[in-house]
Structures are given as structure tokens and as C-alpha cells.
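Give me the fold.
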Amino acid sequence: MKTGLVLVGHGSRAPESLGVYEEIADFVEGSSDYVVKVGYMKHGRPNIIEALRQLIEEGVKRIVVVPLFILPGLHVQEDIPVLLGLKDGEAPDFGYGRIRVPDDVDILYASHIGADERLAEVVLDRAREVLE
């Protein structure tokens, strides 16, 4: 069964932020067998629902939604699960609503990034960049 990932980012109006999530998606797709899409909460396209629909239209039957958030804030705990239909509640007003998932498609919701020790190397690299 083909598995897809939707990497969820908040998005930003800052032009220099364009392409960052897509670059991460390319890294993930290049080192896995997953079909990977990016979905934005707001300030970017495609939004989460559009990214899910793209995968469903491509025939993907199992989709893992991975929030690219370090903290377990409101988007991670409330907004995304509600938009995915995995939790009851009022959908956030981002200009799009909940997705209707076909019966033969499974949507799985992964944990946020959190305090992962693998981030230490990235933090140290950024510090070294400015110290050298």
C-alpha cells in the first residue's frame, strides 16, 4: 500500500520563508519510499486540506500527517486534529474547512517534532556558522 506524508507547516508572509518546507519535504522523500507533500496552516499554498486531496487523487490510501512544530501548541493539539476529522470541535477560520476522507483512506496523525536530541546537531551547526 502506498503511503503518503503531509508535512504541516504554519507558513509565513515573509518572502524568505518560501520553499523551506518544500526543501524539507524533498529531503524526506529522497530518503524514504513515501510520497511527500507540504500543507500549510495559513500563509501558504497548498493548505493542509489541498495537500491531502492531492495525495488522495494520486491514489494514496494511507496518509500520515506530520506537524513540523517543535511545541505542542494550539495548532498541534486542536486545529490540525479538528481539520482532519480526528477530533470534535470548531474548525479554525483559515479560509478552508475540514476534509471529507473517503472510507478507503486512512489518515494517521503523528506527533509534533518536540524536544528531539537530533536537533542538537542543527543548533550546534547554526552556532558554529556565526562563530567561524
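Residues 3-131 form a domain with the Rossmann fold fold (CATH 3.40.50.1400).
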